[in-house]
Design goal:
- There is one protein chain.
- The chain is about 40% helix and about 20% strand.
- It is elongated.
- Helix 7 packs across helix 12.
- The chain is α+β, with helices and mostly antiparallel strands.
- A hairpin with a 6-residue loop joins strand 13 and strand 14.
- It has an 8-stranded mixed sheet with strand order 1-10-11-12-15-9-8-4.
- The chain has 2 domains: about 80 residues, Serine-tRNA synthetase, tRNA binding domain (Helix Hairpins), CATH 1.10.287; about 300 residues, Bira Bifunctional Protein, Domain 2 (BirA Bifunctional Protein, domain 2, 2-Layer Sandwich), CATH 3.30.930.
């Protein structure tokens, strides 16, 4: 949530910055509501003060033996007026809060202008794009040789946009997750956490998934308002909801592996072939809670942690900064890591690493105690994929394919695969 104080003090600045996200702020509506809120706030405080003064007068008059009936009636009338003013103030405040929940985060000054992902800006590349002496196949063509990657079986079990993995391909998928976790734990200093894959409405409100993006979620069909998680970001970030961390605890760095569930409501007809865009997939997520003045550095570090996985796997990739039109609702700044897929002859997103600043923290009231002031203050949240397991599996299948249709297993994964150096689909 955007800081209401900033919205009140410089709404024109907020409106101008949100245009970078192609969002048109209704300045007139918000300004009108704010004027009503301010007037009602002043009226409420004045009535409260007047009633307090009148109440004191009752006691004084009573001690002097005077008739207090008129004073009692006056206090009662003031109380009715105060209740009415409070009710009106509550309605206006709720209207403002509802509007605030639909306002995206203010983008960082470094975010480039642009309407879509086509205008994201490449920052750097890593690795050499592989050259093949044979006609390359995508992961679907390669997997068609055997039944280790089976989409038809998944359709029978669940429907489209699901998949099943068998044998050593399933083992490789699990090996990737274990490898990612161990790198982040041992080399990058994260603490592993296990969380529910079902969350309540409040958790999704806290991270900015609700109320705006409900159609992207899988909601359980009962009265409890529970949802399948779209990413571990939601439950992990919400462990700090309504909490105050001590300065000694900061920064808090957590890594979590979960399944993720997405309805892909806005992606009809996109990536219907293969494992790129699924309703269910596994991901290793990195989440950091940091002091406000450290979030920019933490964002860079977290991005490098995700990059390290790709480097250790020997997968060529590039880093792009998202333009305003592609930047997420809650994010102030996002880097995407895009891995090279020979089967598509292009880079595809495999991780998004974002700095949310205090946007999520304000929604969740996630705070830390500043030792300089002794007071609780909003912390900053940073997170990113480290990495999406399914897309990493796709990248390995396509980049390490051999002329006979087998897959060479990266050396860092061979220990998880019983020492095997290759995988065959036949």
């Amino acid at each position: 949530m955007i800081d209401p104080k900033l919205l009140r003090s410089d709404i024109d600045y907020v409106a101008e910055r949100l245009k970078v996200k192609n969002f048109d702020l209704n300045v007139a509506e918000i300004s009108s509501l704010e004027e009503k809120r301010k007037a009602l706030q002043i009226k409420t405080e004045a009535l409260q003060s007047e009633r307090n003064t009148a109440s004191k007068s009752i006691g004084q008059a009573k001690s002097r033996g005077e008739d207090i009936q008129a004073l009692l009636e006056s206090v009662s009338h003031l109380g009715d007026q105060l209740d009415e003013a409070k009710a009106s103030l509550k309605v206006v405040q709720e209207s403002l809060n509802d509007l605030l929940m639909y306002l995206p985060n203010i983008p960082d000054d470094a975010v480039p202008l642009g309407a879509s992902e086509d205008e994201n800006v490449e920052l750097r590349t890593w690795g050499d794009i592989p050259e093949f002496e044979f006609k390359v196949k995508d992961h679907v063509e390669l997997a068609a040789i055997g039944n280790k990657l089976d989409f038809e079986l998944a359709v029978k079990i669940a429907g489209s946009r699901f998949t099943t993995l068998r044998g050593d391909l399933a083992t490789l998928h699990r090996a990737l997750i274990q490898f990612m976790l161990e790198v982040h734990l041992k080399e990058h200093g994260y603490e592993e956490i296990y969380v529910p894959s079902i969350v309540n409405k409040e958790s999704l409100m806290g991270t900015g998934n609700l109320p705006k993006f409900e159609e992207d979620l899988f909601k359980l069909t009962d009265e409890r308002e529970l949802y399948l998680i779209p990413t571990a970001e939601v439950p992990v970030t919400n462990i700090m909801r309504d909490e105050i961390a001590s300065d000694a605890e900061m920064p808090i760095k957590l890594v979590c592996h979960t399944p993720c569930f997405r309805s892909e409501a806005g992606s009809y007809g996109k990536d219907t072939k293969g494992m790129i865009r699924q309703h269910q997939f596994d991901k290793v997520e990195l989440v950091q809670f940091v002091r406000p003045n450290e979030s920019e550095a933490a964002h860079e570090d977290l991005t490098s942690h995700a990059e390290k996985i790709l480097q250790k796997l020997g997968l060529p990739y590039r880093v792009v900064i998202l333009c305003g039109g592609d930047l997420g609702f809650a994010s102030a700044k996002t880097y995407d890591l895009e891995v090279w897929l020979p089967g598509q002859n292009k880079y595809r997103e495999i991780s998004s690493c974002s700095n949310f600043r205090d946007f999520q923290a304000r929604r969740m009231q996630a705070r830390w105690r500043n030792p300089e002031t002794g007071k609780p203050e909003l912390l900053h949240t940073v997170n990113g994929s480290g990495l999406a397991a399914g897309r990493t599996l796709v990248a390995i299948i396509e980049n390490y394919q051999q002329v006979d249709g087998s897959i060479r297993i990266p050396q860092v994964l061979q220990g998880y695969m019983g020492g095997n150096s290759s995988l065959s689909f036949s």
